[in-house]
Task: structure prediction
Amino acid sequence: MKATAKLRYLRMTPRKVRMAADLIRGKKVAEARILLSFAVKHSALPVLKTLNSAVASAKNNFAADEANLYISRIAVNEGPKLKRYRPRARGMAYEIQKKTSYITIEVDELEQKRAKAKKAPAQKAPLTPASAKASTGAVKPRFRPERREIRLREQQGIAQRIFRRKSI
Result:
């Protein structure tokens, strides 16, 4: 059960709206509402309104419990741009793009109310000499580098990126 709400043609840039969307991605609805209501971002209000719409849709259409809902997906995409022009020196005109955003929020239940049918337990295969050998631990484990080696590799990668830069 996924309830969806969409807001289209919001006159804010998607980059700014994504900052508010990243605050609540994957959170429970109650926690997300608190975060958005106290967020200083200007884009938090439209995201909060869209979230409220998705929750109302879930309650109305699927009889979902609001305390059991979480944000399963939130996407902020680019909408059409309004193009305006500003006069500049020597008779030129510079284009100004007034960007718009599309917000899509999906809410889902943490625990489904319906009981799922239980599967029958799988039958165990008879033990063969090869499987007995594997269960005793005689098989060699796969190679896993130590943490120190991993850290050294990461540090070398950072050093290579720094010294790859061109100097003036």
